[in-house]
Amino acid sequence: MSTIPGGFDPAVLQRLIERGQLLETSAGLVVSDQPHVALQPALVEQEKNLLAAVLLGPADQRQRWGVFRRAIGLRFDEPVPSALWSDAGLRGLAVEIDALFRGRRDITVLNAAAIREDLQQRALDGRFGGSLQQLETALAEVIAWGEGGGARPELEFTLACQLFQSAKARALFYPGLRRLLQGEQNDSGIDAALEGCRALLNEATAITAGRLRQSTTICSTSDAARECIALASLPAEQRPKPVSTGIPSLDLDMRGGVMPGTGDSTWVLAARSGVGKTTLGIAAAMGLALNGASVLVLSCELSRRAIGARLLAHYCRRAAGQYSSRYSSNDLEGRGAVLEGRDLERLQQLATLFADGLAPNGEPMGRVLYQSQFAATAQELAALVEDCKSAHPQLAAKVLDHFHAMGPTAGYGSNTTAELAARATTLKAMAGRCELDVS
Q: Is residue 348's pLDDT more than 60?
């Protein structure tokens, strides 16, 4: 590197990156949150345990990182604070993991091999501005730590999260407590020391209790006045508009459809078995997508293949403009008629548009995501939705099918009514946190 005349020395910038004072993000180089404590071997050990539990093995470990994020209390749109990590290399590695988890990288699989491949490719493309050597070294150390020395019970992930939270809380609080005790023989006032200790205790408790970065803002009459005037004075063409489901009678009950980014509404469609609840839910999801909203479809009873077949079958019907038995979900699951000739060619054309996120008329549509979760509990479904929202912030609505087939909630026994109410409350709370409309 050479010094830029009248500017700054690039070597200084490189040193700041290597120390972790500057971090490479999707938005470029940003100033890092500085850690509150000096480097402590016990804390670094728990940091390595946690990261090794996420990175080891060939499987996709995004679910584990989601567990960690929820354990410390982050919202779907909040990054993991870089100040959590005391070691600069581990801090940079954690930033990369979180960026991948939140959909800010080109890859969708989270493990050590994927992280390394992405870093190298971005460096080759000139899209990486940090210290590649520092991250490579940190990644190698974490892998060696996890694989060396035989089995480590700390690498059981829930326990790894708890040990990390405890170690971080101790590293935050104990130095302040020691400073307070060192002044025991002094005659001076201790108000400032107590206040500092109280602040550290609150910060440590926020980490162990899962309240990190969470705050409650109490609104006042001035907030209501300001927001209402702003909304009431918006010209009609600038006002947020609900996205239609494509089903007029359903839109009527939903006040026009789904309003993205609010999470205000949860709808329950109840009827006896076999009357078409799933068909209506799939039609509503596809209608929202065709009108530009991104949708997540979850089922506690249908297989992944069955959900995909029903989504594509509805897409084909919308392309035909009328109901047709051709391209039924049974056909697309391989249970009905054998498709060949022109029928197969037409299906391949429509499937290509569907896979590319295009409506039958070639216009872009919202993203359609789906998954099968047999007998999942309300808590498991809420965790999955939060992870999905973190990775896909544009997600506007979720369709949950087969509410009755969800797994049992502990503590309710035979009290079915109370259990169903608890499920609904959990899902409603999730909708509010993720700013999603749920049906």
A: yes
**Placement of tokens 């939903």 in the chain:** 254
Query: What pLDDT digit, counting tens, does each position of 359-391 carry?
Result: 999 999 999 999 999 889 989 999 999 999 998
CATH class of 241-438: alpha beta
Q: CB neighbours of 302 closer than 8 A, spacing ≥ 6?
A: 278, 310, 372, 401, 402
Contact between 391 and 100 (Cβ < 8 Å)? no
Which of 74-78, 113-117, 192-196, 341-345 has the lowest average pLDDT?
192-196
Query: How buried is 135 (Cβ within 10 angstroms: 0-12 exposed, 13-18 middle, 19+ buried)?
Result: buried
CA distance 389 to 209: 23
Residues of the chain with CATH 3.40.50.300: 241-438
Give 343-406 as a DSSP string: HHHHHHHHHHHHHTTB-TTS-B---EEEEE-TT--HHHHHHHHHHHHHH-TTEEEEEEE-GGGS
Tokens describing residue 49? 């345990």
At residue 152, does pLDDT exceed 70?
A: no
**pLDDT at position 50 over 70:** yes
Residue 13 is encoded by which pair of tokens? Answer: 């910038």
- For residue 298, the model assigns a pLDDT of 93
pLDDT at position 148: 73
Instruction: Tell which wins on pLDDT, 279 or 437.
Output: 279
Closest to 299 in 3D by CA, of 266, 277, 329, 321: 277
Structure tokens at 246: 């494509």
Rounded to 5°, the CA angle 360-103-389 comes to 75
> Can you tell me the distance from the alpha carbon of 81 to that of 100, in angstroms, rounded to the nearest whole number?
15
For 297, which DSSP code?
E
Question: Rounded to 5 degrees, what angle do the CA atoms 234, 236, 239 make?
Answer: 60
For residue 11, what pLDDT band results from cuts at 50, 70 and 90?
Answer: low
- φ, ψ dihedrals at 81, nearest 5°: -60, 135
Domain(s) of CATH 1.10.860.10: residues in the chain: 10-208
Separation in Å, CA 334 to CA 309, 327, 337? 10, 11, 8
3-state secondary structure of 29: strand
What mean pLDDT is predicted for residues 429-439? 85
CATH superfamily for 10-208 is: DNAb Helicase; Chain A (1.10.860.10)
Q: What is the pLDDT of residues 69-89, one digit of tens each?
A: 999 988 888 899 888 898 889
